[in-house]
Amino acid sequence: MENRIRFKKVFILAGAICAYWIGAGFSTGQEVLQFFAVNGINGLWAAFVCCALICTFSYILWNAGNREKFSNPYNVFEYYCGKYLGQVYIWFSVILSYGIFVVMMAGGGATIHQYYVVPEYLGTGFIGILSLLTVLLGVDKLINIIGVIGPIKIFFVVIIGIAAVATALAKPDMLIQGSALMPQLGFKSASGNWAWSGALYAFLALMMSTPFQVTCGLKAANKCEARAGAITGGILFTIAILFLVFAEIVYHDIIVGQQVPTLAIANQVSPVLALAFTVIIVLCIYSAVASVLLMVVRKFAVDKTKKFNSIAVVLTGIGMFFGSTIPFDKLVNLLFPITGYAAIVFAVLMVAKEIRLKNGSDKTEKGEGNMSV
Description:
Radius of gyration: 20 Å
CATH topology: Hydantoin permease
Number of domains: 1
Distance between the termini: 24 Å
């Protein structure tokens, strides 16, 4: 019974991590465009590189979260990196997460502005307030909410991908032409090499979600359930990447100059789909913003306490201000690639420690902390 897998729980947890990953950058199409689609057909191969790495990292982190029962999810950095380097990574993760929080707030404003033609600060404010209210409910409620939203996000991305496949089948030259033109259309690129772009994106996902992944692993009933949730989440996320890459290549001509490529594609496929997709993008951004905000505030206070609520309100207000003033695509291009590089050292240390643990040469005790998850 201790290794029994509850499939409903696996999909809730997998949905939660997908919802965490599929935030503003992904749902608007900017992340996938800059890391994958800009490389044309090779962007599809890059997605498989990403899948292999992200499933490996998630497997390790969820397993560690379930095994070590960290009292504070940020303790995972000291566990893998040691006391001093671990502290560097803890604060890097906090600063990074808050930067991503601002990026996603900007994405929310850009999306609502592009479709509803309202000032970006109104869209940013709407996302910020909705996310804050969710965060105040605590981590358990948040996981249950976004665990349902995650699969909905993927479903709508798949719809766009299927429409692109149908278009490509009717006009086979569109895919070939799009693949050849993508590098020449002026899109920002995370890297000059498609395989390295896929790897960098996996490292980005690792760095931005490490505390949350540890929390998901802890919420699983046992190591088998944790591992199943990690792999399921990685595979579902990759499916979404593949469909979106395909769509952006096929519809390359209509996404040039667009802050929100997915919305432009959805509008091309069907105005009704565009309306629905606007709601989905807002849901994507809201769930990811709420998740990231909660993990940032958890560094400083236990959820559902006065201190936690006060910090959450202040950080939301600051994020709403900066998210309304900085262009979204520039934020993505500046912040995300740097993060991917910074995650490489952590990934190496993480894998090295797991190898030592497996060989019985590491006697490190379980992570300690003064906050309960």
